[in-house]
Amino acid sequence: MPMNYAYHPGNVAHSSAQEVADTVFPVAKTLGINLIPLEGATSCGAGIIRQANRRLQLTLNARTFAMAEELGLEIVTPCATTAGTLFEDLSALRSDSNLLAEVNNVLKETCGKTFTGETEVHHLLHVIVEEVGLEKLSESVKNPIDFSVAGHYGPNVQRKGACGNDDVFQPNYLESVIEALGGSAVSLSYRTQSVGVPSLLSEESTSLKQAAAVLSEAKVEGAEILVSICNLSHTVLDVYQVKAGKISGEDTSIPVIHFTELLAFSMGHFNSRLAQLKTRIAVIGN
């Protein structure tokens, strides 16, 4: 019987990361997960809206929670920033009845919805490990990932209650998934470090040095490719990779892919992209 979840793509998958939008639904179908899109859901704010107007971010996310409640479903997302931000705002609303009442008044006046606090938020990684199971994941593999893969979690979802039963400080769910897909997992000491997404425009040098630390460690530890469970972090690690290397003076040349891409490739979806993935390892890695 399929597992049903309300699907929130996050801030990037529906705009600049088409590869996530392409791969997440085939992956979910293969694993028996039924994703019900939250049509019209807004950005989670990524902690950035909060800096200007905390109440606005809370209200926007409360609307998303109310939409999931109307469907009678819990929320799943492929982005660690979105999962962490939604979890934080959900916790804030649940812990303050006065705040919840004020936000609900705004929701009722503007969109006719109310939020009770009954839904939950999950990252796709945690659903796969805890609900689907690594054994079933292994059974779905058609193209084993026969190379060394380093994983990056980022900091946003690594908090108690947000990362499932994984360890907050020393997580290993992603490494377990990599090995279940036939890969050789490379565990990074910087795997939960921020790569400075919110500060990229204001403190670019600092942000890129943080990204370089993750990329260069992956290279030094022998990884052939880096996979991110955070779509926003992926943007910095991939798009700004060359600039990060120039600013830091470190070797940052390693291909970076999204978590859903790794899953899709291993399951036999988009075989031409799998070939392209191996080509990227050969061209970018050295």
Please give the radius of gyration in angstroms: 19 Å
The unreliable regions are none
CATH C-level class of the largest domain: Alpha Beta
General form: globular
Q: Please, how many helices?
A: 13
Q: Largest sheet, order of strands side by side?
A: 2-1-3-4
Description:
The chain is α/β, with parallel strands linked by helices. The chain has two domains: about 120 residues, Up-down Bundle (Glutathione S-transferase Yfyf (Class Pi), Chain A, domain 2); about 140 residues, Rossmann fold (3-Layer(aba) Sandwich), CATH 3.40.50.11810. About 50% of the residues lie in helices and about 10% in strands. It contains 13 helices and eight strands. The chain has a four-stranded parallel β-sheet with strand order 2-1-3-4, with helices on both faces. Strands 6-5-7-8 form a four-stranded parallel β-sheet, with helices on both faces. Helix 1 packs across helix 12 and helix 3 packs across helix 4. The longest helix has 18 residues. The chain is globular and about 55 Å long. The relative contact order is 0.14. The model has no long low-confidence stretch (mean pLDDT about 90).
Q: How would you describe this structure in keywords?
A:
single chain; 286 residues; alpha/beta; Glutathione S-transferase Yfyf (Class Pi), Chain A, domain 2; Rossmann fold; four-stranded parallel sheet; 51% helix; globular
